[in-house]
Amino acid sequence: VITGDHGTEAGAPHRGLGSNLPRLFYDEHLHVPLIVNGPGVAPKTIDALSSHLDLAPTILDIAGITPPDVFQGLPIRMRHTHPDTLVWSENAGLGRCDIATKPLYMSVRSTTHRSIVCAENFVPELREFYNLENDPFAKDNLASGNKFTEIRESHLAAIQKRLEKLRAQSEGQD
Fold first, then answer.
1. pTM, rounded to two decimals
2. What is the mean pLDDT of residues 62-68?
3. When you count CB atoms within 10 A of the terminal residue's CB, does the N or C end of the chain come out lower?
């Protein structure tokens, strides 16, 4: 298995963001290669949204082992059958990952839209929202507009649910 942890503007339009962590949720920063090779692994290209959360379930799936229910990801070969599944990215910035005392930056992406939030004290604030069908390079921030309200609210509800789970974990309740 060969992969990377981030794309570092892998050939996409340069945004000049450097290491501005809360703003590294664009495809050029998140797209990474994934190459799996070995006995019984047939060559194929899978064009579907996925994340590193899908890596362990994918490896187990290739080995013929059913991933445990506690895994958050899916085997990548199954992603095309779950097109509405959101792909998550989270970043607590530099230093210790203590989200109870510092901001957590989060992004959720579907095949058509991306929301980026900053959560402080487990309360999300929508910073950016993109319609990727009409704006594939995420240049036109629609966070404050009246368009796509239902999708933005759906993304924020999913983010709030994730934040509630993280809060419970940080307080030792989960």
1. 0.82
2. 90
3. C
